[in-house]
Give the backbone structure.
Amino acid sequence: MLAKRIIPCLDVHNGRTTRGQQFGKAEKGELSDVGDPIELAIRYNDQGADEMVFYDITATSEGRKSMVSLITQVAEQCFMPLTVGGGVNTLEDFRTLFLAGADKVSINSGAVKNPQIVREASNHYGSQAIVFSIDAKHRQGANGWEVFVAGGRKNTGLDLIEWAVRGQELGAGEIVLNSMDGDGMNTGYDLEATKAVARAVDIPVIASGGAGGPKHMADVLTLGEADAALAAGIFHRSEYTVGQVKGYLANEGILVRKI
Amino acid sequence: MDVALIDYGASNLHSVAKALEHAGFNVSIANRPEQAQNAPTMVLPGQGHFGQVMSAFLASGFETVVRNHIQAQKPFLGICVGLQLLMERSEEAPDIPGLGIIKGETLRFPEGKDSVPQMGWNQLELVGNPPLLKNIPQGSFVYYCNSYYVSFDEDLPGAKTQYAGISFKSAISKGALNATQFHPEKSQTIGLTILKNFRDLSEDLIQSEKARVSLA
């Protein structure tokens, strides 16, 4: 049986790790700088993180260059799976990040613009290397959830569940579901959305958005039926270590990898 | 300790190379067969779609060099598809023969019980007394990323792992012949310990071979 995974996430803007309260803060200059991404990566490596995810939230050519250099340095010191995303649109983007040392590359808006790129990347690199990342919000005045792109500014009108199933059909090996209602709020993951996606697809689902503590993680890994829980702020602010979260989960009877 | 890392275009070599260096190897990446033919130690990686990896391997011209290396009982480590290539055949590509070093086959995990591919951390159940897994505690977690697994009858030291309702062979370690279904280069401290074990057992084998030759 596979261990449930705990995955720290680093949003990287101009070479620094940042964390905003909610989506859409980067362009307003309201991101808070939480540290050097390499120092953080080594810290989480030592704490027993199961994987790490890096998002380039500048997604400009300058940002991409600093991301490539960052991943190369992290891959030399952290011997665990590394996922990299942000501004991935073309096969060349995939190639650049794999060459830098990414084990998996995550695609989000780029898949909405051109779904076939997911199939091409999956055929080329294998489904295990392609992560389908979705930003979703509760549909206004109705049931269900809708898919957003462009850092949460643009509603695509796509239905979350249909889009997740499409991602699997296109050859993605994993889904990251980021609940935008909860992102940065520390009020817990969206258990209903996570469970709905987990039941609709066969591939692993990584829950993201809303982690405020170990209890939220336990909930999303059991009630939410997620395979992995991703978190940023609670680790960056040193509120909890990965080891503390895993200790809590193990006490709750959840299988985790302890080091 | 010099090691040739076989580059036939089907793996993320960067991370394997870095982990081998971390374990104390002096790594040379071989992207032509002749660059590997005199290597004292060899690592054969492989990741992704079995048919594509197998085809790339056969097209690369490395088959003879790898086969000769193993038959000469020089230290060898296969990783993931690098283990599967040792079998006689694969369920997925029945027309493409494997190296046939081990009498067995590569099968796909059944659908239904667990997600395929297996992606994540799973536990080792040690079998026999495998030198590759020296000092690795029973139940240690290692990182997997595979849709196929190997099946063979021979009782080889190594490890087993449970997934999709199957107990599959996740490592073999018999003398110079070593292979893992999991990715030691992505398995943090446990993985690095396994690579250091491979370095140690390689050194021991090469020393005893030198002693044998000097006696003869």
Notes: Chain A has one domain: 5-251.
